[in-house]
Write a structure and sequence with these properties.
Sec_Metab_Biosynth_SDR, oxidoreductase, Sc_DH/Rdtase_CS, Rossmann fold, oxidoreductase activity
Amino acid sequence: MDDLLKLDGRIVVVSGAGGGGIGTMVTRMAAEAGATVIAVSRSKENLDEHVAPLAQQGLSVIPVAADASTDEGIGAVIEQTRATAGDLYGLVNVAGGADPSTWMPSTRVSRSDWRELFTANLETAFFMSRAVAAELKKHGKPGSIVSIASISGMNTAPFHIAYGTAKAAVTAMTRTMALELAADNIRVNAIAPGVTETAASHTYVDEDPERDRRAIAMGRRGRPEEQAGAILFLLSDLSSYITGQTLLVDGGLSLKWSHLDADNTSLFLKDETFRAAIKRWDDTDSGGGDER
């Protein structure tokens, strides 16, 4: 059984590896499973802080400072895989997320906000997946691609429509690419995390264990290593007959989906900041957001 989890001799690319959350944790766990991990982040400082220590611990991790939302950045990542000993095998698309300032009614979303969230959460994942899949096909190699969708893309996402829609599109992308690539023995899957304890989540989600107990079936938030464990499963040969699937990793939050208040605002948002900001909008005005 343990052998099926091993990634010895395989190269795995992780985008969004430098944030100290899920991306950093899956970098660690994939390397501990024997992979050589190409750890990608736009921020060299983040790589120095969160990824370089993994290499110093003896894990096979290669930090690459590159912007995976650009062709140049993706090209640099692919060149690094070619220069690295081993066979390219896996890709984990973690890069993405949302600026909390984009929480607002649908009638206020600007074109620039919409484009920014789709670039970060959909386009980057697609074009990274396309590049890795093309490289695998060229060499006739099997592989596994795992993207980060979201519970917000599996359910309604009030006041967060651009993010929720982009993540729903990740699920659709996953299914379509899985079908196209199945004959090449390249599997494509995703996970949809629920509320997870990361540094980024603490910028807009406050601490309330009692609320977590009520809203989440398992009574607590997820941990980065639990999301990374699901990703490692989908990367590994333990899931060799699974493709085109989006695995909910949410502690049962979606079973209850009771985190919205009477105004359809998420109870997880900090009351003094984002909840107030959302509710300050007056949708009786001209609407439509700006056209930035």
